[in-house]
Amino acid sequence: GSVYFKPSFIVDESIGIKVVSSFSGNSQKGLPTAPGTIILNDLETGVATAIIGATYLTGLRTAAGSAVACKYLTQDDIKSMLVYGGGLQAKLHIEVMLTVRPSIKTVYILSRTKSNISKMVNEISPKYKGVSFEFENLDDNKISSILKSVDLIVTATSSDEPLFNGEELQSRDKPLLICSVGSSRPANRELDSTTIIKANLIVDDINSTMVSGELAIPIKEGSITKSHIKGQIADVVSKKYNYNDHKNNLVTVYKSAGTSIQDIATANLVYKKAVQLNKGFKFDM
């Protein structure tokens, strides 16, 4: 496993650090695979003001980033989504995508642990009437067909190897957005080089994604360079990157490896709300 220390400073707002781990074996122990903790500090004194469990917050802000990508990089009327993963990230991504794109009526889910999917579907399906959640009998032929026709793919796993062959996407005749959020280390990736090379590539943060396997491996192979990145998600929102200018390339990848400014901004919002509502526990250190 790995442990990451991610500090960030937000002008006139907050300063803090997130400590987050990545231990894929935790799922076998009933523990989160990416446990995290955030410490916020006072801007004037440096004294710690809050310690916040960041496992859920990390999942939520990651899913929120993908939802922004979905809002700006897909059509309003997309109908289907394929999700790789059965953990918290997968669950939150399904919920935010169905919120941003209520036109989605079919959600395919793939995970090595079927019991996780069944539990997740039982939790969320009552909230989304009219949406079909399909995870049974998805054999290789069915998955191949889905890859050619689905409108949105989310990869939220701890996989070390690509989840599908990028060549499967090359015969598509309509746009596809892939939100890849599960990998952050140089040696592991959810998407193969073919997928990355042939896609419009948008990232959450250039520095963090450059060391994720999705970029690090094809760069090492000499297949792409840093210039293959079309822009950051901020460029999409500000219209510096215009989706319509790249519609000839049907596949767009949004790669998220995590950016600490989102973590600290989210934690600061939670802290302010907790103070306002008198929630949490106060103690001296």
Explained architecture:
It is a single chain. The chain is α/β, with parallel strands linked by helices and 285 residues long. It has two domains: 2-56 and 261-277, ornithine cyclodeaminase, domain 1 (2-Layer Sandwich); 58-259, Rossmann fold. It is built from nine helices and twelve strands. Helix 1 (55-73) packs parallel to helix 2 (88-100). The mean pLDDT is 93.
Topology (SSEs and partners):
Layout: E1 2-10, E2 14-22, E3 36-41, E4 48-53, H1 55-73, E5 80-84, H2 88-100, E6 106-110, H3 114-124, E7 132-134, H4 140-149, E8 152-155, E9 176-180, H5 193-197, E10 200-203, H6 206-209, H7 213-221, E11 229-232, H8 233-237, E12 251-255, H9 260-277
Parallel strand pairs: 5-6, 5-8, 6-7, 8-9, 9-12, 10-11, 10-12
Antiparallel strand pairs: 1-2, 2-3, 3-4
Helix pairs in contact: 1-2
Q: In the CATH classification, which architecture of the largest domain applies? A: 3-Layer(aba) Sandwich
Quote the CATH topology of the largest domain.
Rossmann fold
Shape designation: globular
Report Rg: 19 Å
CATH fourth-tier homologous superfamily of the largest domain: NAD(P)-binding Rossmann-like Domain
Fraction of residues in H or I helices: 25-40%
Main beta sheet strand tally, sense and closure: 8 strands, parallel
The string of secondary-structure elements, in order, is EEEEHEHEHEHEEHEHHEHEH
Number of strands: 12
Q: What's the end-to-end separation, in Å?
A: 30 Å
Pfam family, one: OCD_Mu_crystall
GO cellular component, one term: cytoplasm
Protein name: Ornithine cyclodeaminase
InterPro entries: NAD(P)-bd_dom_sf (IPR036291), ODC_Mu_crystall (IPR003462), ODC_N (IPR023401)
